[in-house]
Amino acid sequence: MQQGLQRGAALMQRRKIEENLNASWEDLRAFLLCTRHQSFRNAAEVLGLTGTTLMRKIDRLEEELGFKLFLRDQSGLSLSDEGRALLFDVEQMERLSFNIFRRASMSTEINGSVRVAVTEGPGISWVLPRLIDFQKTYRNIMVDLRCAMEQADVSRLEADISIQLARPTNPDLIVTRLGRLHIYAFASEAYRDAFGLPKSLSELRNHRIVKQHGVQLDETGYARILGLESLEGIVGISTNSSVAVLYAIERGAGIGFLPTSVMALGAPLVPIDLGINYHMDLWLTYHKEFRNSDRHKIVIDWLKKIFDPKAYPCFRDEFIHPNDLVPLMAEQRRNFGLQGYAAAGLARRSDLD
């Protein structure tokens, strides 16, 4: 009987330790998010908690550890010396936990899901049409395509594969440069007929601009590239969506900047020669663990193929004028053009009404 009581007490003690470990890891994750967002309110939104509940978690963690993690003032949260020392260990814990789940998701069989994150414009206008054909060949691979301007962090399992505008520096990731997006000024024919087109950057001040903003875009880039101190008074529409920019330009809302490929794919736009040739590189990134997953390797190879600059001139390093790009991409326009998209269709129907 005494042995039974001892075993029961040991079991209860082990369960209590496990419960404390689970609670502590939740608190440590809350600490990580507070560190990344430098704000209780923003971190609480990500966790789906109230700010008060999150602060109680941090208070409990600080009490258990015996020291303060944050210095709190009106400017936000900053790490204490002890918090900074703890951060490295907690990030290592998170990284190792992600590795466990990443390995669990891998398989030598060619079936299952692959999560691909792509910046919105190329994702919708370039990857998605080709994904339909890919799916016809690989029926057992489900590609979960995420198109957004926010960059997905593949090291934190936000996606398996990411195509992004900023090159990651995490040594655990494999990074390949796919190609280059060349950005050019465009307007609609209706806008040109109504207001004319600027012949120089100085004349652009007399026109309306459709501007895109986003976390992967340089907010000061427009004014700097255009040689202006401010865009105040000339921006008619500002949006975080590249698809919305294309739609607004098509509908004659103003002049905007888009990849040269949109005109080659059939968008009814007029290029504006302002002497500007801006470009952004596309980076393919995935965790090195996925080298051992057959279905991930298939998707990675396919993405490299559909962004190959040798096959698709719009991704070459050298700039090709949109007018010259049109005949070079006639086959792509025929098979994967923008003519089937709702925005273009709505614009054409509106012009006919």
Automatic annotation (TrEMBL):
Keywords: DNA-binding, Transcription, Transcription regulation. Residues 25-80 form the HTH lysR-type domain. The keyword Transcription applies. InterPro entries: LysR-type_TF_proteobact-type (IPR058163), LysR_HTH_N (IPR000847), LysR_subst-bd (IPR005119), WH-like_DNA-bd_sf (IPR036388), WH_DNA-bd_sf (IPR036390). It holds the Pfam family LysR_substrate. GO terms for biological process: DNA-templated transcription. GO terms for molecular function: DNA-binding transcription factor activity; sequence-specific DNA binding. Transmembrane segments: none annotated. Belongs to the LysR transcriptional regulatory family. NodD regulates the expression of the nodABCFE genes which encode other nodulation proteins. NodD is also a negative regulator of its own expression. Binds flavonoids as inducers. This is Transcriptional regulator, LysR family.
